[in-house]
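re: ur question from earlier - yeah i can do the single chain one, its not a big deal. heres the input i used so u can compare w yours
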Amino acid sequence: MTTTAPLQLSDLPLFPLGSPLFPHGQLALRLFEVRYLSMMRKCHEVGAPFGVVLLTQGGEVRKPGQTEQFHGTGTLATIESLNAIQSGLLHAQCQGVSRFRILNSRCLNTGLWVADVEQIAADPFIVIPDDLRYIAQMLEQVSHELQAQQRLPWKPEQAQFDDCGWVANRWSELLPVKSELKQGLMAMPSPLMRLELVGDILDKLSIQKRQGG
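and the output i got, formated as tokens:
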């Protein structure tokens, strides 16, 4: 039996952010830095993806003398729409596609980071076990509430409330936890283990809420 080698991409433009992006997650960006205005226009013109990575040092907006550092695992994003709000200001609506690991990265003279990356295989579809079904049921309830408020952060037609990975990812986006923990969830290879950890976090938050903490 032969195995397919992971797909590799060269010179993938990177967008370091303060929170990670999950596959199938929605991402809205307001762009004004020259390095990103040019990059996003080029990606949009040719239909190319870019990579979102979580910052470990530095800010989303570069300051003089500042150098960004970021995690070695990120998520490919595709641009669904790109609109000029005014001169030098763009709004981009993007969607997470698949995870990747960075093989090497470098910063160009423009300040834009690019990397050679290796894509990580998509989560296999795993039906949610009976003892974890409550996590999906809670997400469905939250989904109805957010949709009624027109604040749903994912596409309703992509919902997979019976899939471990999809439910775990959507909860990971919503949970009020630190970005480092979200990064760990995103990079976790097992969707079932990811869902179990999400369940543990939800249980702890529920206990804290009941105790008034």
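Strands lie at 8-17, 26-31, 50-57, 69-70, 73-86, 89-107, 113-119. not sure if urs matches, ping me
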